[in-house]
Each structure stands twice: as C-alpha cells, then as structure tokens.
Design brief:
Distance between the termini: 117 Å
Shape: globular
CATH class of the largest domain: Alpha Beta
Strand order of the largest sheet: 4-3-7-1-2-6-5
Number of domains: 2
Amino acid sequence: MKTNEDIQGQNSRESSVYIAVNPARRTIATAMALILLFLFCASGVYAGDFEPVHATVTRINQFGAIVFDLNGIDLAYGDSVDVVFSGGYQFKAIPFYPDFYGKMDDVALTVFQNALVIGGVARNPNLTARIEPGETAVITLEQKGRYREEFEAYNTNDATYRAPGQTDEDFLNAREVTVGAIQPGRLYRGSSPFDAEYGRVELMGAYIATHNIRAVLNLADSQVRLEAIQGLPAYTASLFKQGRVIPCHLGIDFLDPKTMQGVGKGFSELTELELPWLIHCSLGRDRTGAVCAVVEALCGASYDEIVQDYMTSYDTLHNIEMNPDSLQYRLFKLRIDEILAAIAEIEIEQLPHTDLHRAAVGYLLRCGMTQAQIDRLVGLLTEPRT
C-alpha cells in the first residue's frame, strides 16, 4: 500500500518527467500566454500603465463644466476614465475627447480653454453632481480605446482655423435662412461678429454690413461682456450703440429654465426691431442651430429641411461625411434629433411624423412668449412685403 509520501513523490516525479519530456508544450503555453496578454493590452482592457491623476476643482463654468487645475492629461482620445471626487460623486467610464462630443445627456473629459474639464454635451453636468470648487478628484483609466470608433467619427478639422480653399461664407458659417415659409432677405445666421477668439470679427462685420443686417440676436454674450469689447468694425459697433444687439448668453441645455427664459426674451425683443436679423453664437453651429430650428419649425419647415440646415454647419465648418448612412453623419445628426425631440417632448422616432410647428409654438409659450408675440414673429418672417 502506498503512503502519502509515496504518492507525493510519484506525482513529483511524473511532473518532472512531463516538464522534461515536453519542453515544446511549455514553450507553446508560454507563447500563448504572452500573445493573450498582448491582445488583452492592445484591446484596451489593460489599464495598468496609467498612474491615477490627482486634481483639484478650481471652478464651475457657465455651462456647469467642472474645471480642474490641470491643462492636460496623458491619455489618448477615445480612452475612458473613472473620476471619483472627494465628496463622493463619481463619473464612471466617461470618454476623453478633444471636444464635447456625444449624445445630449453625455458627459466627457476634455481640455477646454487650456484647462482639463468634465463637461456636458448639452446638459449641465453639475446639476446632478453638485461638485464644489476646492474638491479633489482621482482620475483613473477605465479602458483604453473604449470610445475610439466614436472618436474617429467625431474627430473633424478644427473650425477655429480656416481650411485651405474655404470660402468666406463657409469659414463664417454664414448663410441666409429661407426654409419653410421664411421669405428671402429676412433672416441670416452665422458665427460671432464680436468674439475675436475665433478670428472672424472683421469678416462677419463685412458680412452683416453687406446684407444690411438691422438687428442681431447674440446667443453667446452678456451685456457686460459686449460693453467691454473694443475695436469692433464700424457697422457692428453702430448696431450695438443703437441697441440693436440683443445679448442672451444662453447655456447649452435648451430645457434649462434660464436658457428657455433667454430664448423667450430674445425673440420677444427681436420682434420689436427692424429686419433683416442675424442669429449667432460663437461658431453659429449648435446654439444657433437649435434656435434656428425652432424658428424654422415655427415657420412651417419640414423635419428634413431643419435637419439639412443644421447639418450644413458641420459640412461647411468641419467637412464631415454627408452620407446619411455613415457613422459620422448619424452621430452629428443625433444632436439636432435630440434637441427637436426635447423641445417637442416626444421620442426621436416620432420626429418625422410630428407637427413641428405646433411643437415650436408650445416650446416658445413655455419660454415665456405670448401667442401674440409668436404670431408677430411668424408674420415678420413669412408674410410677403407689399
């Protein structure tokens, strides 16, 4: 009868023999393990090469973005991170992008105005997070490349700079709006004729003078900010001095009460000023696109017309793939779909079959306009001149 020592010795000898007579198997097993580890790392799951980053919140900006005391982070665009604050709140698996990309309710880590921030695409992330300046945070890599495909679709040319061969109007993202029943020569949209940061002040000044713009709905600036600006082109400066520039300083969330109040107040004041009008934000893209979508719907534009006008800004500014079947087109189109659905208080799938005029009226009433003011707005833009 074998003792335990005999059995252990036999097992040990058998193991030794196995290793000795099967070096090829051992080599293959080792190689396979290394290959699997390489694939594991390459797939983006392995996060061991990134040291956690400690940061302090310096402020919360006007859009509710959480601003850190860092101007960058050693990550690749498309990586995802977890951010844990000293107060207990956590953002889990959010993307690191070069801009605020994503769906309306999404949150991203990015660098904005030379600071690392967590910001919302079209929502104020701090309404829920309630982060206070002075809180600290630990940023850890959640997964390499989790959002790489989306990043590559979102990643476009930087609209701050003029692309080779780009026309003045494309660089300005400036055009006349004539969809639905809007009459020619009534409404224009474009980038900011006031903000020198985007390098368009002189060209936009010439554009509004050429088109004899008589009133401006400024979605980006406050009255105080406008009063501090110097060196504007003569025509732009004269419009401001005459009280023909309406500053709204809108946020990015069009269901936020302050933003809705700004929309209602801005349109109410605009209807008291002479046509033609210009609507602008910084680049004339997102906030301008949303506000113009409301006006267009109000004036009888179809869903397809509204989408086309919105997407034109991404074509002219960023030269995106305009094939409706492409991932890039679908991702950017989702923005206007979400805005319209939110305004209409419906699901996105219902948009092509929704009375968008009625939805726009309902939204502007919730923004504080009266039915008489809404009717006047429509009349000024659509009724033929006698």
